[in-house]
User: Fold Dickkopf N-terminal cysteine-rich domain-containing protein from Dictyostelium purpureum.
Amino acid sequence: MIKIIILVFCFFTTIVSSQSNQNICSVYTCNSTGCFETPKCPQTSNKCFVTSCDTQTGQCIDTPIPNPYETKCVISTCNPLNGFFSVVPVLCKDRSDECLVGNGCDISVGCLYQPQFTCSNKSDQCLNVIGCDPKLGCQYESKCNSVYKCSLYSCSLTGNGCIKTPKCPQTSNKCLTSSCDAQTGQCIYTPVQLPPSNNICSNYSCNPSTGLFTPTPINCPDRSNECLINTGCDAKLGGCHYKSS
Ligand SMILES: *[C@@H]1O[C@H](CO)[C@@H](O)[C@H](O)[C@H]1NC(C)=O
Ligand SMILES: *[C@@H]1O[C@H](CO)[C@@H](O)[C@H](O)[C@H]1NC(C)=O
Ligand SMILES: *[C@@H]1O[C@H](CO)[C@@H](O)[C@H](O)[C@H]1NC(C)=O
Assistant:
């Protein structure tokens, strides 16, 4: 009886020890025919991966198949059905907003850029290029800025450049002369001076549309309350002349 128990015990320890020698990457199944070993990690149906088994941990690992086209200048994608790659070139993005202009593609670096020095020429709008600001883009300044306070500058869109016009042009009133204060840029209008005249018996007034002075005979004031009779104006006698009544 003891012999049988020992035999049975030996039989079981043999099975247990043979199982501990099993391959960690195999699956064992037994049926009435016997025991069969099958791989634990069969090849995945996705042809873009190769399935393998880690002999240390028994973990299944899907490793991407090598991509013969992989560079930084193409986008290649693997078709899971056949493991073939399709390839399209990388589209380098427009970075002119950052003052950069495209300079081709390097297979190990990717899209290349260089600083953009070619801000568009706007000289027809009287603008000079200052440079390119990475945040603001191309910067321009007006060619028509002037330090002269008595001139106005504007841009001719016909390409003639800056046009200078006086800030204080002559007004339509020809009895006023216009001038400009160079310090302040203020317009000054001064009445045209009465031309020197020896005709003290005329009063001169300026006509705004012609700027000409026209004489009007002066009216000698009545001085009858001083018992003086007005005899009119006589330039030689010194203006208004009176005699006693
Ligand atoms: C036992 O398993 C093996 C492998 O899976 C199989 O080929 C065989 O037909 C099976 N036998 C029976 C009797 O089920
Ligand atoms: C810009 O264009 C004008 C004529 O349109 C030309 O005279 C000028 O040289 C150009 N400037 C630059 C920087 O290309
Ligand atoms: C001349 O004309 C001005 C303005 O009309 C008037 O104020 C002035 O009294 C006149 N002088 C004489 C001498 O008539």
User: Anything to note?
Assistant: The longest helix spans residues 2-20.
